[in-house]
Amino acid sequence: MSKISPSIDSVAGFHVAGVHAGLKKAGALDFSLVVSDVDCVATGVFTRNKVKAAPVLLDMERLAANPQSIRAVATNTVSANACTGSVGLENARATSDMVAAALDIEAEQVLVMSTGVIGTHLPMDKIARGVELSSANLGSDWRAAAAAIMTTDTRSKLGSVRVETGSGGYTLAGMVKGAGMIAPNMATMLSVIVTDAALSASVAKQALRSATQESFNRIVVDGDTSTNDTVLLLANGASGVSATTDQELAAFQDALKALCRYLAQEVVRDGEGVTKFVTLDVINADSEASAERIGQTIGASVLTKSAFYGSDANWGRIVAAAGRAGAPFDPDSASLRVAAGESPPDDQPGLEIFSGGMPTDYQEAAAAAIMAEPSITFTLDCGLGAGCATIWTCDISHDYISINGDYRS
Amino acid sequence: MSKISPSIDSVAGFHVAGVHAGLKKAGALDFSLVVSDVDCVATGVFTRNKVKAAPVLLDMERLAANPQSIRAVATNTVSANACTGSVGLENARATSDMVAAALDIEAEQVLVMSTGVIGTHLPMDKIARGVELSSANLGSDWRAAAAAIMTTDTRSKLGSVRVETGSGGYTLAGMVKGAGMIAPNMATMLSVIVTDAALSASVAKQALRSATQESFNRIVVDGDTSTNDTVLLLANGASGVSATTDQELAAFQDALKALCRYLAQEVVRDGEGVTKFVTLDVINADSEASAERIGQTIGASVLTKSAFYGSDANWGRIVAAAGRAGAPFDPDSASLRVAAGESPPDDQPGLEIFSGGMPTDYQEAAAAAIMAEPSITFTLDCGLGAGCATIWTCDISHDYISINGDYRS
User: Fold this and answer.
1) Which residues of A touch B286 (CB under 8 A)?
2) How far apart are alpha carbons A330 and A327 in whole angstroms?
3) What is the mean pLDDT of residues B92-116?
4) Structure confidence by residue, pLDDT tens digits, B361-397
């Protein structure tokens, strides 16, 4: 697996900025811009919610018409520009017009993203200020750019990976935001991933789709899915290295998947009120789809998440959630282990707490010691087939309720 | 609609007891027995979870073999007798053997229910004590019987309704427990409903199935579904009044549905940590199934429930939940109103806060005043067809997390 760095030095031909446009209070960064010197092959994966925000609709339209000459991505916080009708779409277009004017490119080359409260119009004077400031301050401060897309996130989330090939190296780098409303099939989650590798449009599309499926679509914070979820990939080819042969494509795909997983896990780690990071390895289900469904049902179970919070090795709730997932499941053929850490070594698979339809005779004290760790892995062996999927999730705490009880106020 | 009384005087031919068998601490009632003098037509609706508790498996077997001569229902708390393997099934059978011996009936005439922690074996010495005490103290104290099936419930939940016909009257009465883990398709919810009307087995089965669908299956506390959910209906005919003609059958069905709805709503009202009772009326969806699915998705959305808790009229989260329900939904044709109370009169439909894909220009202060009420009704008009469904749900509070964070300890 590719080695991910938790920071971004620079990616050839890309320039970024994160500025204070006045959307948030007290000087906090709230508007972000990513720009490429040259045209990018670009693709996106978007929310499956039937209620789609204006920027999602605009980006889907632009990427369908124009997947080979994208130049910029502008992101605002505070307003999601969702449920804003025709005015919302006009405002999304107007944002891209301003970016295009500032960068001397075409509006059709600009993608936009928004996150924040649903149903409020973009304050266009502040958006104009954000465009002006960010376009005048482009550089390599990716941490500022990542901070400028945060909402209830407690920290900026970014990462990069370097890929070396026979004909030279290239970089993949990305930033992400998202803290609550994270569910299977994306989340209130925005991510921009860039690379200086050269890709064809079809390779970019297929690679992002595949990587998203095994990363952003396999994290669960609270089971909700937002109107704005977007993951964008821009490839500008500035490294002069292309991914064309099977081997090069596989290397690119591996690196992209590793980066997406890292960013997705960062979202879970920074989930609203999260105190525990939980890895759910569902193995030997009758199919991969069943394994994923079982893992996602467990990860979305409020009752199970409450037990995680209480450091309670409550295998009963986990098995009960598996039983209602709507996938083939037989408790008599299943077993469940719990281990400390994120990737327990194969020779230390953890404590078996359930087997053959019943709890084992494990010691509660041993289980409690594992559950007290900040990072826990459950391995649910369904004993039915060869389907496997890993879901990353977290607990639900008092703080989650506090954060979401009065988010708008 | 039939008039429900929140208590039970007596039902001809039925005797009950709620006793302290030593399962709970400090003398709390923990074992319940319902007995009929004569054979009952009986039917049940059970959890759809693939992980079914031993008492569920035993009752399903007995009702399939023997739907016309049930005499007793015994319920224990503290242990759910789920995930307990062959020993669990033996213990369920042994419980029914003891009840049969104490009442001088056959074991096949006894149904059993269990609720509590998954994966612990029934303490058979205490169960024996419960059978002994309850069979020796049968009477008409339904409140004690209802209290003896409680787990994290804060109060006993029971109700009755009287039906008068041309040939005399009969009573329907029921008790229910359930506080958390309440979801579409039942819950950790146990309910026993009895009537002194005379019913055929096929009428009883059909009537309970239909009533459950529009009551217990339309409440959402936390989206989880338990291994033990059971609703039983016993009809002993002791009133001498039978439901046979179409009119009599309709009257019985109406009364049963009204009683089930009342009991189901009582479960929501007493949900773990609940501070608000929320009615979700989904109207004009493309089908009833779509309306139900949309309502259940909204009701299970943790993000939406957090907003209820914070008295935030966050229509955005409601519309976003509708959009991801997997049913046809178009925000542009939808509208949403909020009103105080459970059944706002038709001429006071409440405050419209969303319409045509966008928020209306409602005043936040007016919405906040409604949201501050302990009981709120949202009406989501999908504008697509004629499908309607009402879901009853609640908020999620800090207390829910506290209750479920350390339930086992």
Assistant:
1) none
2) 10
3) 97
4) 999 899 999 999 999 999 999 999 999 999 999 887 7
* Contact assessment for residue B280 and residue B390, using Cβ atoms and an 8 Å cutoff: yes
Q: Please indicate whether, in this complex, the C-beta atoms of A322 and B51 are within 8 angstroms of each other.
A: yes
Active site residues of A: 188
Between B304 and B409, the more confident residue is B304
Q: Do A294 and A380 form a contact (C-beta atoms < 8 A)?
A: yes
Could you tell me the pTM of the whole model? 0.84
Cα separation, B113 vs B130, in Å, equals 13
Rounded-to-integer distance, Cα A202 and Cα A216, Å: 20
Residues of B in contact with A227 (CB under 8 A): 316, 320, 323
CA distance B354 to B349: 14
CATH dotted code for A14-269: 3.60.70.12
Q: Can you tell me whether residue B379 is helix, strand or coil? A: strand
Angle, helices A315-323/A302-309, rounded to nearest 10 degrees: 160
Within B6-45, residue ranges assigned H as helices are none
Q: Say if CB B400 and CB B273 are below 8 A apart.
A: yes
CB-CB neighbors (< 8 A) of A331 in chain B: 50-51, 83
B164-223 pLDDT, tens digit per residue, is 998 899 999 999 998 664 443 434 789 999 999 999 999 999 999 999 998 988 887 655
pLDDT value, residue B59: 98
β-bridge mates for residue B173, sequence order: B160, B194
Distance from CA of B369 to the nearest CA of A (A): 15
Q: Cα–Cα distances in Å, from B394 out to A400, B221, B301, B382?
A: 17, 6, 11, 22
DSSP string for B55-92: HHHHHHHHHHH-TT-EEEEEEE-SB---S-HHHHHHHH
| Residue among B321, B340, B342 at smallest CA distance from B331 | B321
Residue with the two structure tokens 């409450």:
A306
CATH number, domain A277-405? 3.10.20.340
Taking an 8 Å cut-off on Cβ atoms, the answer to whether A409 and B312 are in contact is yes
Decide if A401 and B306 are in contact by the 8 Å CB cutoff. yes
Q: How many other CB atoms are there within 10 angstroms of residue A159's CB atom? A: 25
Cross-chain Cβ contact B320/A226 below 8 Å? yes
Q: What is the mean pLDDT of residues B291-300?
A: 91
Burial of B39 (C-beta count, 10 Å sphere; 0-12/13-18/19+): middle
Q: Which residues contact A261 (CB under 8 A, 6 or more apart)?
A: A214, A215
The closest of B82, B183, B52 to A330, measured between CA atoms, is B52
Parts of chain A belonging to CATH 3.60.70.12: 14-269
- Closest CA of chain A from B290, distance in Å: 14
Q: According to CATH, where is 3.10.20.340 located in chain A?
A: 277-405
> For the purposes of burial, counting CB atoms within 10 Å of the CB of B151, is it exposed (0-12), middle (13-18) or buried (19 or more)?
buried
For chain A (409 residues), the mean pLDDT of every run of 10, in chain order, is 88 98 93 98 92 95 96 95 94 98 98 91 97 98 97 92 94 88 54 97 96 89 72 97 93 96 91 85 96 91 82 86 92 95 78 94 92 94 96 79 54
Helical residues (DSSP H) of A152-245, grouped into ranges: 201-213
Closest by CA position to B380, among listed B268, B277, B279: B279
Q: Using CA atoms, how far apart are residues A83 and A52, in angstroms rounded to an integer?
A: 8
ipTM over 0.85: no
